[in-house]
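Render this sequence as a predicted structure.
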Amino acid sequence: MHYDDPSLQRSQFRRQLLNPFRTERKEDVELTLDNNKLSSIFSEVITKFSEYFFTQLSTSELSSKDKSVIDWYFEQAIEETNSLYILAAYTTATNFYAVLNKGLAKFALKYFDAILQESTKYKAVAAIIDFISLLIHDPALDKYDYRGKTYRGMLFEKKDFLKYVVGSKLMNISFVSTSKDRNVAEIFAGGVETNLITKASEHSCTQISALCIYMISNARTGLDIEGISQISAEREVLLLPFSAFRIRCIREMDKTVNNGIAVELELEECEEHHVESARKKQVRILTHLLRQQQQNNESSMR
């Protein structure tokens, strides 16, 4: 999704998200919540997500069998106060990942619309966002934080691809699956094994096989879920919602020698925007005044 300044939007959106843990995320601050409080947080957030969104899904969106599978992961997440089960649920061989991303793409931005915050539908929107907040704010996931290069293969409609230009910024509203293994990503781009099928299909004239190369630099943008995913061979790094990137480079490739990939896009993560709190601003100003006064005193003593 495109914005005039997605990097700023990313910071604004993530700051407005409910932090279920009510604690600052600093390396030198330990989580002080006891197990009962953590259990209560997981129970409240997941229960609301189930009530206002998950149970409302039709069987055409998610089968009864798949719902039972996901329900089990939710129950374990609550019982063990462990958000790894939420990540595991996302990677199951069900359609859960698709309906969750569809819900995010459809409703996520409405979470920040004050006009809608009194409506019944907003409860479903808030339930989805609070559910995502568990993954964004849970300190227990810090060790899965990933920085570095990942790859994502995809097919672009030619008309949509024209919107992507060097220097432009974009922000993902939903989860984005990437891989640390370029070869894995190329398969999803319609290259390698699937390349012959893509070439023979009718839509090959209207679609472009592309490889996106992401450079992740900020905290809690990507989670390394290789050891959590049910398909560990994909070496997946999951990009969390509201992550902003700038297109650094677009390269046209020779498909015949590049595993069917026609285009490569390099995307570097936008720098995090930090908005100074009122308290920090007061401390900064006071410190500056004290230093200035000290300098004046030293000058008058000379």
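Summary. The radius of gyration is 23 Å. Residues 6-10, 22-33, 192-203, 274-287 have pLDDT under 50 and may be disordered.
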